[in-house]
Amino acid sequence: MRHVLSVLGPDAVAVIPPSCLAIIAGPQPLSSLRIPVYQPSLESSAAAASGLRRALDARGKQDTHVVVLAGDGGTYDIGFQCLSSAAERNENILYVCFDNEGYMNTGAQKSSSTPHFARTGSTPAGKLSRKKNLTEVMAAHDIPYAATATAGFLPDLARKVQKAKSMHGLRLITLLVPCLDGWGIPDDQGIALARLAVESGVFPLYEVEDGCRYTLNGPQKTRPVRDYLEVQRRYRGVSDGEIEQLQREVDAGWERLQQRMR
Amino acid sequence: MSHDAGRILLTGNHAVAWSARLARPKVVPVYPITPQTPVLELLTEFHAAGEFDAEILTPESEHSVMAACIPASLAGVRVFTATASQGLMLMHELLHYASGARAPIVMANVNRTIASPWAFWPDQTDSLAQRDTGWIQLYAESAQEALDSVIQAFRVAERVLLPVMVNLDAFYVSHSLEPVRVPSQALVDAYLPPYAPEHFLDPQRGESWGNVVSQDMYYRHRRDIGAAMDCVPAAVADADREWQDRTGRGWGVIERYRCEGADLVIVTMGSMCGTAREAVDRLRDAGQAVGLLKVRLFRPLPADALREALCGVRDVLVLDRNFSPGVGGVLHQELRAALYGIKGAPGVHGYLAGVGGVNVPPEKIVHLAREARAQDAESEPVWA
Do B210 and A38 touch (CB under 8 A)? Predict the structure, then answer.
């Protein structure tokens, strides 16, 4: 969050739905972010940001950035309907989804961003379905900019925020942020795991402009998925067959992405 | 007359759109729903013709409409929207959010039955089910009153910092054409200066809204909302008086029609009042001392004014075009509570009349009044 906001600068207003981020922002009417924060209901971030955007425009504040900082539950699930609508209207907002692949603020339950076979509080035997591909779904709205980023590659993240900042319309960054507790990883492994997610091809770094121009920004897929899984307690008890299936899913996803780069 | 742009034939919906235009809101998020849609359509026509300088958003749902209204209002601009029935139901969560945010949004609601089953008829259950959301509620009897009320509503909302819902009955008001005096822009501008709040969301100010608070902060905030609500009857009366000074039209907080010496007073809201006036005239012609009390401001309920108006009256007949299962008529319930324990409290007869849009002609009300005069008030509401 610090890295996103430092690139964005002081002329911005944040919309943060109920989440761990909202706790970090502190009690009203104060804000630890040094920019104003409006907290909407969990499901209405993109709609609230749209209203805020239009009001700032009406006041002649077209240069003030409106940035949504929301989790995956508030984005992939309950907030998705209004996000799709804001994308259809191409509202001039920057939407950053802090994707930790579950409802972590309520103690780690599954969201539609939770990956296949991951154990959560609501999928104790492992999730039976695959992770929704938010970036692709949003790119299919033909928005100016949809990108993936991760805390494991900070210069890439900063560049993407900078690029998004210079554009107009709805811009989305899906930001993979490992949750130490929710994923069951050691305190010092968050950044390393974020890098491993990219290197294994589980979470490729790329950007899509106007829904069609794809660019791969991160490293090639060089590591087996098994390396990524074995350090995370949420994959405890995953069978060899399931690991092979995950590898096939990642390979297929990577191949599909390569085709779109061409 | 220079204060009028003219007298034109308008439906209630189009009168609302005209009043919204004249109030110069800067942000208008809106979603279509029968029977409110003509409000949206006329506003977007005004906008397309360059006559309405507002940001119009058309999100995917009424929920997102209200979600957009709140921070737009908190960013320091005037905000208007309109809805009906299921749309209002879908907004419910955010109606609380709006009053909690002290956002002076004005919304017109066309009162329509709520599903299931699916229906389109006049019924006030939709808005009355929102009575605990912290919204001020006004009920309009006519297109003219709807127009005047929307403009007045901004004055009230921006004074007490609470949102206002202006309700008009489906079809009887929303779609009926009547001659409406549309005030001039200059008159409205003088009555309603630009919205300039003390606090608003802006990077230069750094103030935030909505994040977590302690028990004590929450408690004090709710108490402040209550204190603001307490100021509303006087604020509505002031806004109405000043409007009357400028236009010659005033509607009151409540209105007493032919209540002098009445031993029975009919109490109702919205378009039913027009029918009840007719019934009162017939009863008066027949030598019966019957009057009408129209409740224009329902939330907060102007309990002092109601007590003063009804103390000493033998019988009160409440006509509820709404139904709360397990309770009966909402106005009946509220009125009984307001009159409870006062000296000389009247017998309060509750009739569920017109629920689901069932027609209630004047002769029906005449019959109910005669019935009420002849017997003690039942403790339970009666399906009329």
Answer: yes
